[in-house]
Amino acid sequence: MRDMTASPEMPLVRRLEAVGFRAWPAAEVAYDGSWLIRLTECHDSRRLNSVNPLDPSDSRDIAARLEKASRRFADYGRQLTVRQTPLTPPALIAHMNEAGWQSFAGSIVMIADIPPNESTDSIEHLPTRDIGRFVDARVQICPGEHSAKAALTEIIGAIKPEIGLFVFEDTKIGPSAISLAVHDNDLAGLLQVAVAPEKRGQGIATAIVQSSLRWARLRGARQAWLAVETGNQAARGLYAKFGFREVYRYVYRRPGE
Description:
Keywords: Acyltransferase, Transferase. By secondary structure, the chain is α+β, with helices and mostly antiparallel strands. It has 7 helices and 10 strands.
């Protein structure tokens, strides 16, 4: 496994972790030392149901704390999951490795400068304020998420920073692309970017990301961040066109069978 315990940009890693938690809030948040435990009964998102260590030096009583967290997860009907980032204590990583914990769902956190908008200071596509409309579009583009419709509505409604909900529509198929931009001071996060399968490869993803970034720039953001699955080469290629670069990676860990 790639070593993620060290990073030349640890202050940036800490900041991106913090804005990431605000951008996708869990229903229940608890701390065990510097281990942030996030649980959400209504949605099975890994990011919303994971232990997130935030201090590489906080490695006391690892076995006991994992057992305590496991009981908390079990109360929610969830399997204990640790999100391993550069902030995860090396001793915890060693413990999981020795115990045969599985690694899965690797992602890359990226950042890019948002270029100034054109002199008109306007954007062609304005975000909607209708969370229901956005969620309906998400479910239509990603049918497998229909059961999570109510949960997505609740999660998006709980986001505290300013949000821009972008929905592109086609007269024939309805929603063709979506993007959720979260403006947090001088940073903007891009989440939930998706394009209808029949509209991919037509430049729509580029257009909706561009609209999201222009909106964020007008709101005061100067840099944008996002997380993309390691194996999603198409998305990584898209984001590279906008100047996104890798800052760090993370994976999820669970106890082996």
